[in-house]
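Teaching assistant here, posting this on the class forum so everyone can see the example we discussed in section. The complex has two components, and the goal was to see what a joint structure prediction looks like when all of them are supplied at once.
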Amino acid sequence: KNQVEQSPQSLIILEGKNCTLQCNYTVSPFSNLRWYKQDTGRGPVSLTIMTFSENTKSNGRYTATLDADTKQSSLHITASQLSDSASYICVVRVNYGGSQGNLIFGKGTKLSVKP
Amino acid sequence: NAGVTQTPKFQVLKTGQSMTLQCAQDMNHNSMYWYRQDPGMGLRLIYYSASEGTTDKGEVPNGYNVSRLNKREFSLRLESAAPSQTSVYFCASRSSVLSYEQYFGPGTRLTVT
């Protein structure tokens, strides 16, 4: 069964600290993996998309890594800010061909950054 | 450029009532999607439309209908609302040409009592 598991479920850190969120997936055939940020009461917003051949991708203070062999990804946040408080969702696209209806969503990690 | 817009933002229905959630995008995207998000669960696909004039069922289509009115608009209808349909509903759109990226709307929070 195609699944995406994220850990931890929730995390509290102090402003200015770094943190790493984990994503493990059992999705086949794999197409790409994406990380979304979802602020409370808002829709998800894309941070990164990584294909099979990409190991690392950065977007400002966000750096995502992908190990396609172990089917693991991480999202590292550097020098956290209060505005980083949000849920972070890992999403894997299944390569069924075509373009539709084949995203597997994780449940998300809820990050709280405290002053 | 507003991206993906959804109306209404909030709605309370009684069991058995019907309503339509509206979604529009101004990015000229071919594909549009409806998801629901429940506490402790990942987003789940209800219906999608690969292009104007086509619609297909997703993971959880029961109790819903959709209409792809034109390239911009994709509506979701609940014919007879049930408490199990209490959820946050997100519309998304995607360009089939440029990337795999999906762009989400702000969501509609629906409560069925």
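For the discussion questions: The CA atoms of residues 90 and 107 of chain B lie 5 Å apart. Chain B touches chain A at residues 4, 31, 33, 40-45, 48, 50, 56, 58, 90, 92, 94, 96, 99-107 (CB under 8 Å). Think about how each of these relates to the inputs above.
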